[in-house]
Amino acid sequence: MTLNIAVLASGRGSNLQSIINSIENGYIKDAAIRVVVSDKREAYALERARNHGIDAVFVDPLSFSDKDQYEGRILEVLDGYDVELLLLAGYMRLLGSNIVRHFKNRIINIHPALLPSFKGLHAQKQALEYGVKVAGCTVHFVDEEMDSGPIILQKCVPVFDDDTEDSLAERILKEEHQIFPEAVKLFAEGRLNIKGRIVLRS
Ligand code: GRF
């Protein structure tokens, strides 16, 4: 059986690319990305999808009267693909409860900080300004709060005195490209069990 994956992405899509590559090279088995949906017409993620023969759909938030209508359309698109796992790969919006409930425990996000520190936007900048000596990234299941669901994997990197937001983001991104595919692989193999906030690996 092939796991049907959908991806929501707003930007350049390097994390999407890491999942595409991991499926194509056999690291993640028995899984396929069926569709990539973006809230940005120009998102390079859509182009990456097309380059790999994956359906790419732009849903314009501005053409709906509110968030529920907008997300209702996204749900309609996803339902057309029998989606079993939804990945947020640089999707810059907070998911509403309809989507979260529809895919309960089947939505995974990548965040460029060691949660629960530095939730939300500009996480790397927040980390630098706070003065932490270790930063990193987190892959987690999505619940109805922002960047708060059960943690699947984390990876840390050092912070250097001369780091800029860009240099730190780049160091973290390399690790994102490792742990996001690893988490998807674990999910696809049925090896993630959620007990309250705790994710156990078998
Ligand atoms: C990544 O840093 C991810 O952790 C965050 O947004 C960025 C997206 O990068 N949520 P990309 O579009 O995957 O290249």
Structural category: alpha/beta
**N-to-C order of helices and strands:** EHEHEHEHEHEEHEE
**Considering the protein shown, what is the CATH homologous superfamily?**
Formyl transferase, N-terminal domain
Domain module tally: 1
User: Which whole number gives the mean pLDDT?
Assistant: 98
Strand order of the largest sheet: 3-2-1-4-5-6-7
The parts where pLDDT drops under 50 for at least 5 residues are none
Topology:
Elements: E1 3-8, H1 14-24, E2 31-38, H2 44-51, E3 55-58, H3 67-79, E4 85-88, H4 97-102, E5 107-111, H5 123-130, E6 134-141, E7 151-158, H6 165-188, E8 192-195, E9 198-201
Parallel strand pairs: 1-2, 1-4, 2-3, 4-5
Antiparallel strand pairs: 5-6, 6-7, 8-9
Helix pairs in contact: 1-6
Bound molecules: 5-O-phosphono-beta-D-ribofuranosylamine.
How would you describe this protein?
The structure is a single chain. This protein has six helices and nine strands, in the order βαβαβαβαβαββαββ. The protein has a single domain (3-201), classed as Rossmann fold, CATH 3.40.50.170. Helix 4 links the parallel strand 4 (85-88) and strand 5. By secondary structure, the chain is α/β, with parallel strands linked by helices. Strands 3-2-1-4-5-6-7 form a seven-stranded mixed β-sheet, sandwiched between helices. Strands 8-9 form a two-stranded antiparallel ribbon. Bound molecules: 5-O-phosphono-beta-D-ribofuranosylamine. 5-O-phosphono-beta-D-ribofuranosylamine is lined by residues 9, 11-15, 89-90, 110-112, 173, 176. Residues 9, 11-15, 89-90, 110-112, 173, 176 line the site of 5-O-phosphono-beta-D-ribofuranosylamine.
